[in-house]
Amino acid sequence: MPITDDDIRLLRDAAPEAEALGRLAPVQLELIERRGWWRLLAPRALGGAELALPQAVRLEQAIAEADGSCGWVVTLCAGAGWFAGFLAPALAREVVATPGMCLAGSGAATGVAERTANGWRIEGRWGHATGAPHATHFSFNAVLQQDGRALRDASGAPRVRAFIVPAAGVRVLETWQAIGLRASASHAFEIHGLTVPDSHAFDIDPAAATQPGALYRFPFGALAYATLAANLGGMARSFLRQATPLVLERPVGPAREPLGARPQVRAQLQTVMQTLEAARGHCLALLDAAWDHVERDAGPVDEEPLRQASLAWARAAREAVDGVYPLCGLGAADPRTALNRAWRDLHTATQHALLL
User: Fold this and answer.
1) Which domain holds residue 31?
2) Mind giving me the DSSP string for 100-125?
3) Are the C-beta atoms of 199 and 94 separated by less than 8 Å?
4) Are 115 and 187 found together in one domain?
5) Confidence class of residue 2 from pLDDT cuts 50, 70 and 90?
6) In the record, what terms sit under GO molecular function (predicted)?
7) Do 190 and 312 fall within a single domain?
8) How far apart are CA 2 and CA 58, in angstroms?
9) How many domains does the chain have?
10) How many CB atoms lie within 10 A of CB 147?
11) Which of 208, 240, 272 finishes a domain?
């Protein structure tokens, strides 16, 4: 499901409306649904696309390059849709078949799940759920309790499990006020006294997968790092695409000569782009190799090289933008411009905890 030029134009053109709304624009949502992006990583047997991860990462970069908020929402919500490969099959089928299916959620274990006779009673508040206004379901982590006391694993640490619940049982709190990714609507949410059956708890582990595809044997950590880095890479490309002609044509000095007449400026632009693309190429090469390894069922994947390459790609994206921004002029500081939006989106995305 490659992104088309028409898709890119639609996402770019709708970005100002989405930012003003504080959520994705209706035309963007219609495109996401029509192209099946919510179900990008959901099991094929249940109606999802189950796209090979290297293809999904490249697609997510392209969406983020078109519009940072849209890329971020698709990436995190489709990433939550991947959890369908770990749910009890009947529940997974029900979730994926939901009209407009969109999963939002949080990886923070800031809630508790109290054991009941037939399931769990959920209480808690989670700080950020990208795409919250569009969600049909929410996923989250919670600390397990019984009789008001935390359940503990063999090492003595509190036990934590992932849960999924329908959006009807969730209260969204409109807390998202970041300078960038404004249309991602990454609001807080809370749950009070919601009881769910055992089937709504699940474990994100290849050994616990309920679907047979390679996608559900791929380690979650490596998937998360690669998809986030791809978003930053896309946002940086967007910024540089817009900034380069502005920098080259910007008149400076008494003679009002364009900055592009200075060899060092041209060299700087070339260097940041080459560095960014080299980091991208290295990360994607490692991702392709890891995917091949999992497809061949060749044993556990060494996640660390891909994690480091993802962090290097994200770092290269930030450094590329920060290196060119001072050359752009005041237009880059105007929040009404697409260039400034790309700058704000990227610097907001860099605050994700995995990218520290």
Assistant:
1) 5-86
2) T--EEEEEEEEEEEEE-SSEEEEEEE
3) no
4) yes
5) confident
6) flavin adenine dinucleotide binding; oxidoreductase activity, acting on the CH-CH group of donors
7) no
8) 9
9) 3
10) 7
11) 208
Of 160, 189, 208, at which residue does a domain stop? 208
81, 137 Cβ separation under 8 angstroms: no
pLDDT band at 321 (very low <50, low <70, confident <90, very high): very high
The predicted pLDDT at position 356 comes to 85
Q: In sequence order, what are the beta bridge partners of 160?
A: 143
Phi/psi-derived region of residue 36, left when phi > 0, alpha when psi is between -120 and 50, beta in every other case: left
Q: With contact defined as beta carbons under 8 Å apart, do 326 and 268 qualify?
A: no
Query: Quick one: which of 178, 185, 179, 183 has its CA closest to 66?
Result: 183
What's the pLDDT score for residue 110?
Answer: 98
Query: What is the DSSP pairing of strand 103-115 with strand 137-146?
Result: parallel
Amino acid at 348: T
Query: What is the spatial distance between Cα 204 and Cα 109, in angstroms, rounded to a whole number?
Result: 14
159, part of any domain: yes
> How buried is residue 353: exposed, middle or buried, by Cβ count under 10 Å (0-12/13-18/19+)?
exposed
Helix, strand, or coil here: 171?
Answer: strand
Stretch (H or E) spanning 298:
none
Round to whole Å and give the CA distance between 232 and 72. 9
The answer, yes or no, to whether residue 296 has pLDDT greater than 80, is: yes
Q: What is the pLDDT of residue 57?
A: 99
Same domain, 143 and 189: yes
Residues 228 and 259 in one domain: yes
- Residues with Cβ < 8 Å from 54, sequence gap 6 or more? 284, 287, 288, 291
For residue 140, give both structure tokens. 């989250």
What would the two tokens of residue 77 be?
Answer: 């919500």
Q: Which residue has the tokens 């070339």?
A: 270
Cα distance from N-terminal residue to C-terminal residue, the chain: 32
- For residues 346 and 59, give the distance between their C-alpha atoms in angstroms, rounded to a whole number: 18
**Partner residues linked to 140 by β-bridges:** 106, 163
Tell me the Ramachandran region of residue 139: left when phi exceeds 0, alpha when psi lies from -120 to 50, beta otherwise.
beta
How far apart CA 218 and CA 205 sit, in angstroms, is 9
Element holding 10 (H helix, E strand): helix 5-21
Query: How many angstroms from the chain centroid is the CA of residue 135?
Result: 15
